[in-house]
Each structure stands twice: as C-alpha cells, then as structure tokens.
Amino acid sequence: MAKNIAASRQKKPGGLSDKVSDIVLVVICAAVMLIVAYPLYYVLVASFSDPYDVYAGKTFLLPSQFTLKGYQAVFADSALFSGFMNSIKYTVIGTIYSVVMIYLVAYPLSVKDLPGRKYISLFFVITMYFGGGLVPTYLIVKQTGLLGSMWALFLPGVVAVGNVIIVRNFFENNIPRELLEAAEIDGASKWTVFVKMVIPLSRSIMAVMVVYSMVAYWNDWFTALIYLRADQAPLPLVLRNILIKSSTSASQSSMVAGGFAELNKLTEMIKFASIIVAAAPMLIVYPFVQKYFEKGFMAGAVKG
C-alpha cells in the first residue's frame, strides 16, 4: 500500500515522473543558456583570433592563431583610461541619483489615498509613449546651461517610468500598509517610515533598480555624444571613436599597396576587443548582485 502511494506521488497523472521532468527542464535550461551565452563566448574567442580564421569558421570553441593585437590597439589609445574613469563616475552618480528619484516617485504613488494619484500616474504613463524628440530636448538642455555638463546625462531622463511602475507595484504588494500605519500611530513621521521601514524592506527591488540603472548608464554613449565634450566621453564612446579611426585608416590605406589587408585585420580585431572591454565590467559586477536581483525581480510576481 505504501509503495503504491509513493509511486503515485512520483508519477504525475498522464505525465512523466518528477525525476524525468526535472531532467527535461535541466536539459531545456542548459540549451537556452548555451544559446544565450555562446554569442558572447564567440566574441571573446574571436577577439584573440585572426579575423580571417574567424570568418572561415575556425574559431568555434577555441582561438585560432592566438593574438593580442586587438587589445593592444585598444589599450594603446590615451583616451581609454579617461573614458573608463568617466564611465565609472557617470554610472555611480547616475545610478544613485536614478534609484533615489525612482523611490521618491514610486512610494507616494503606492499610497492609495494620495490625492490625485490616478492623474499623476496617468501623467507619467503618457511620457512613456510621447516625447518631444531629440531636437527639442537638445534645445532645453542647451538653454538650461547643461550642455557640456555631466548632469545632461541624468536630469532629462532620470525617472524611468517603467522602473517606477515596477517599484510601485512592489510597495503595494509586498509591504503591508498596516505595518506602516502602525508605525505612524506610534508617532513616526512619514519620512521616518519611508527611511527606516520602507527602504530596508525593499532592498531586493532596489538591487533590481541598481542593476537596471548601472547597465543603462554604462552602455549609454549616444547621450554623451550629443551633450558632452570629447574629454568627457565615457568608455563606450571612446571605443566607438577608436573603431571609427581604425576603419578610416583602413579605407585610406586601400591606395597603398599591401596596406589594406593588415589594417583591415586590425580593424576587425579592434571591433571584437572593444565589445569585450565594454562588457567586462558589468559581467564582473553582476554575480555579486545576482541573488538580490533574482529575488527582487520575482517579488512582485505573487501578491503577498
């Protein structure tokens, strides 16, 4: 009798056993992981290989004709270090500022008795679908004196409405209002409740917002191209300029006998090396916040 009950628990009605189901899920997850991770691995291998071997399909798993010329060309540029430091500065300041503003907007909108809450939320949602465009935004930045200032990267779009909605839903579904109201009855001000209760209880969703903001500011080169000077360029923009210069040199060398082939190879090496150099910092940081990122991302999936 006991054996029959155990067997019925292990096998789902009309389906596979739990063990077989787990194996199938693991295989599917492994296949998806390979599909997602292999392109980055391929670029990493290609950055250490001869470009002609890359295009010939000789670098499926391991580098072919191992070389560091691409990285040497990238790190030889004097602007790389300043671009790296600029990116760190913009990412740290922008992430802190963005997360603070998201919290200051999302928490009041999570309070259901906030006067005009529906209309304020509607105002924010409208900005997700309608905008003035690049030229009006540039004119506003210029007239407000932000042109050439790093604050031009932050102020025009500091509040990401999609992130505000995620954080607001987290506050509504995962922080009991009764707990906050009890603290206010005991004499705590709204600011005290926010700082000492809401923020500590929402560290998981804060980690999600930190990752989102870090990736956005680290990869943002177009905004810097429009508003900042050359010496203020972040790392992605510096790498873009290096690649453009190498491509221009390769095209100009076509009139020189034997020069085009080598310069074209160097341009391709720089292309792959630039991708790795730009992506490496975020790949290094992500494992340290992965636990909080996953917890916060899934926290709002089930209403508590």
Give your account of this protein's structure.
The chain is an all-alpha fold and 304 residues long. The protein has two domains: 54 residues; 231 residues, MetI-like (MetI-like fold, Orthogonal Bundle), CATH 1.10.3720. It contains 14 helices and no strands. α4 packs across α14.
Write the layout of secondary structure elements.
Layout (H helix, E strand, L loop, with lengths): L1 H9 L7 H30 L3 H5 L13 H8 L2 H32 L6 H13 L4 H10 L17 H14 L2 H9 L4 H12 L1 H17 L2 H6 L7 H18 L6 H41 L5
Family: Belongs to the binding-protein-dependent transport system permease family.
Protein name: Carbohydrate ABC transporter permease
Keywords: Cell membrane, Membrane, Transmembrane, Transmembrane helix, Transport
